[in-house]
Every structure is written in structure tokens, then in C-alpha cells.
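Key idea: predict the complex, not the pieces.
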Amino acid sequence: MQLFEADAKELASRFGLPVPIGFRCRELEELKVGLARLGGRGVLKAQFPFGGRGRAGFVRSVSDVSELEEAFHEMRARSLRGLTPQEFLLEALHKPVAELYVAETIDVDACRKMLLVSRHGGVDVESSGSGGVLRTSIDPVFGLVGYQARALAGHLGFRDRWDQLLALLRSIDACFDAYQLRLLEINPLALMEDGAFLCLDVRMVVDEGTLPRHADLRQRLLGSEPKLLGDRLRLEYGLEFVELDGNIGLISGGAGMTMAVIDLIAARGGRAACFLDCSANPTREGYGTALRLLNGLRHVTNILVSIIGGATLVDRVAANLVQLIHEIHISKPLTIRLEGANWERAHAILREAGISAHRDLEEAVDEAIRLARGTAGVGA
Amino acid sequence: MAVLVDQDTRVVIQGVTGRLGRFVLKDLLAYGTHVVAGVSLGHGGEVLEGVPVFESVAEAVSCAGANTALIMVAGYRGYEAVLEAAAAGIRLAVWVSDPVPLHDMMRLRWSLPAGFRLVGPNTPGVISPGKSKVGFMPSHCYRPGPVGVISRSGSLSYEVCLRLSTVGIGQSTAVGVGGDPIKGLDMVEVLSLFDSDPETRVILVLGEVGGRDEYRVADAVREGRVSKPVVGFLVGREAPAGRKLGHAGAFISSDEEGYWPKLRYLEASGVKVVRSLRDISGEVRGLLNGT
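Result:
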């Protein structure tokens, strides 16, 4: 999950990374005060939990109050990936002599941290091809060392100031370690006329596994609005949700089996509406959230619950489903497939409640596909 | 024979007093696994289901003769449990926790002593049907037999083993290597264990989109480092590129990590890749009859 730029910059500055002066605001009046403090000119940047806003027109330089007002209202009237911005960062305007790219991530095959550096930063770094991006592996014991900084500085075109680059990269690495990030990206890293570096944009991708350790990061993620639906479901309910382009709402357990059922639905002539894995929260709350969500999504014609449980005892799943079916008015046809630990009791519980269920996966998938065609026909 | 766990496996459960720990303790004892100890800080001296609980893994080793650890503590605290098990002389640790910080796993890989084996994290564990179960997979899905199963996904391995068992094809051992991008034993290391195991006649590899594990399996087959027939099955054919579908490892970060490139490479390397769940048993049976 990605932090807002404003949060990422605040955290980065704690490690000595230079960021522009800026004001984080929700309201136009606050932004106007900020603009006055910046001397009447600045860059207005909408805050989203993902990249790609620059091309979509959510970063605009403004040179007076009327331009600020216009940019603010214009951004508030539009959306990106379904989200309308609620928070803004207004920063001082800078004119760098060069825009570089620096990122740190984990190379999982080498089991080491890795730096990626390019002389061509900015919104087009990905399209510039991998040829310009230099990868440097960080020693697990010694960290980044001088010869590496000299090579990188040479690649960037200022070999004589490699020690300045080394200091910056070590700050990046310290921040990456402290928050145990999956990705720390500075793009662009501005090289200013006086030779100083300035991090014009900072992107941090947080590892969900570290959140019990980093209450601060968790609070920042929870407080960032707007959120992508998948991020909200993961943070608040422990559900993994990815929307797909089909119409069968699949509720499943375990990543591998969820993918297997999505593949199976497609192979037998249907399309899944989502990847929705409840295995991290196999409770009434988890399944209830999933059922309410799919019941409310317009393009979902019917719902398939397919669980093969190990640590998730499916008799508990069955008991939860019986209660939820009584609690929620599920307006869409429901197909249930339960297998795994305690499956006999699970099926007995459903039978007693008058709910039919399958053990065989293909049978359940075929029924869901039939129901999807039937309901799609009724709706059309 | 079998790989990793068998009748001589003597298990200590770390985190035995947690909700999942207590459930697994009962379940393993019912299966016949030799659970000789539990470890839980502040619970030393207690007895759960007839099994003594200690304050440290070192005591579980010296007092109860544990040689295998099942780690059931919270993901962000798991690395300590792994280090403790390794220091106490445990030879195999099965680490089921999820989610585990990737930074922890990266550092652990550089810290573990030679000769210590780690399975996981983010795995249901390891089962040698009829001999020993060290994990939380549903027991009725498995029966003893000649197929060695390697899987990144727990749920998928239950489904596939159930289908095999239902038609009378048993498993020597089913190993969940785990769904994370950095793990202890990886697929190709387990592949080589199965290749040396006299009881295993066919090896079944259950893979996914994302990561490069399946390429290492393919290379081992291609280079003749595996003498037994290898069957593969891949999930994620319909996964949208660049989107994370649950498993941290199933993130398609390059085209090569997608379904079709992986499938083609495996096939070109001599792995028989089955396209549908239904066809796995038939393919495995054919190879068993042929060997």
C-alpha cells in the first residue's frame, strides 16, 4: 500500500532527505494562506494513494490566487481511478537543472536490497527503457560503499561529487530500513543550480506485514482519504480484493485456490467479477463484509462462495453463512462450495438451514455460470 | 521414506498457547504426529493435551528431544522464533505465519546457520501422509503414496491432493514452500529432495504467476538434474498483469512471470504441464504406470 506523497515526504525529511517547503491542506482557504507564504507562486499536487496523477492533470503550477482557485476547483470536480482528491500539497516552485530518478527496493532473487538510478527522471522514466536505469546491489552487511557511489555518480554525470551522492543514498537506505518499505522512490530527484539535491516527489510502498510494528504507518494509511476499495478492505477487514471484468462475484480462501477458481470459471465459459480472498479474516465480519460488498456491486450478477479450508474450519464458515443469510437480504443467487477441515459438519449445518451446497468444485462453478447467464438475461 | 518429516519427527510448537497453536496441537496429536513440547513465554511448566510447555526452545530440545519446530507466532515476531529454533539445534523449522515482513525474511536468509532448514513462511506446512503432519492442512485430503507434491499455495495443494487421494493416488510428502517472494526452502530445493527419496516416483509442482521459482524448477529438469518425471500445474491464467492477487509472491512484475511464458518454458524444459485441475490425476496416474 502506498502512502500519500505528503506523508512520504514528512517521513523522508526525518532522515535528512531534502524536500521542498510545502503546505498540506484540505480547504481552499488554507491553500490561499499557503500560497501567500510561498510568495504567491507554487505547485498544487492532489494526494492519491497511487502514481500516475501527473499525466492526468492533478499536478499544476499556479502563479496567483485565481489560478490556484481554478486548479483547486477543477481537480475537485474530477476523479482518477474513481477517486476524487480530498487533500492537497502546495509546494514552492523549483526549476532544477536536471531531473534524476532514484529508487530502492528488494531484489527477491538475490535476497538483497537494490538501488535503481537513472539520469532521466520525471513522468517518462518507465518509457525511457531499462537501458538508462543502473541497478546496484547493496551489501547485506556493509551497506552501500564508496566505489558504488563513484560508479553511480559517474553514470549520472557528476563523478566529482560522488561523496554527496553517497550521503544522499545512505539517507535513502536508512529510511527504507527504518520503515521496512517495499519501495522508496524519488522521482524526480532534482539537481539544483547550486549543486544541491531536492526530492520533488517521494513515493513509499508500505509492507502490510510491518504494520503491527509501525503504528505510525498504520495511522497514516488509515487517515489517508480517498482510499482505493482494495486498500480499505485490506486495512479495515483483512480482505484481499481485486476487481476483475466479469460478473460472477467470487468469495474464496487462499490466494492459489482463488486464482484456480477464477481460471476454472473462465475455462468453463464464465467470467469472475473479482479476486476476493477472505482467508486472513475467516469470520462473520469478514464474510459479511464480502457478501454485502458483492451484493451491492451492480455488475455482479450472482455470488459463488468457494472455500477449501485448513486452518479455516469450514463448519464455522457454514455457521457464519447461515447467520449472514438471515441477517443480510442477499438479492443475488448464491452458490456455496465447502470442502476441507470439518466438511461433514459444514454440510450438515447448511442442510439443516435448508441451504444447498456443493463439495465438487466444477459442479459449483457450472451452477454459478448458469445462474450468471440466467440473471444477466433477466436484467437485459 | 518421505522428505523433511516422518516417524522420527519430534515436534515443538512455538506459540502453542495461541488460538491457532492450541487447535493445531490437538489436530497433530489426533493425526499421530509426535508433538513432544510446546513453547510459550510465561507458560513454562504447564501441560497442554499431555504435552509439556517450556519457556524456551533450548529446553524443549534438551528436556523433550524436539528436532523440528512448528512456528505459530504472529508474523512480525516470527523471525525471533526462527533464530531461537536455529540456535537451539533444531534441524527443520516450519514457519506458517503470514504476513511476514519481507525485510525480516531477507535478513533471516543471511543469518541462518548451514544445515538448518526453514520451510515457509506463509505455508500450511509439511505432511508425510500416515507418518507425520507438521502444519494445519486438512488431514482427510491426504493418503500415503508415491507422489511428491510441492506447492506455493496451501489451499491449492489441499484441493489437488484431495483429488489425487479420491482416485487412490497417495502422496509421499506434500511440502508447502509458501507464498512469499523470499522463502526458506524453495521449489527447486524440495524437487531435489524428492528426487533422492526412494518412495517418491512422480513429482507434482503446483505453481503460480509471479516470481521465478518455476523457472528454477524448469532449469533443473532441462539440465538433467532430476531423474523422476515432473508434472506441473499453474494458476493465474486470468490474473491481470501488474496486479497483486493475494500472495505477495504472485505479483507479475515482468512479462516472464505471467502464465503463458512460464507454461511454455516449463513445457520446453520437459515438465508435463497439465492445463486443468481435472486432468492432474490422470496425468500422474499415467506416469506412475509408466515408471
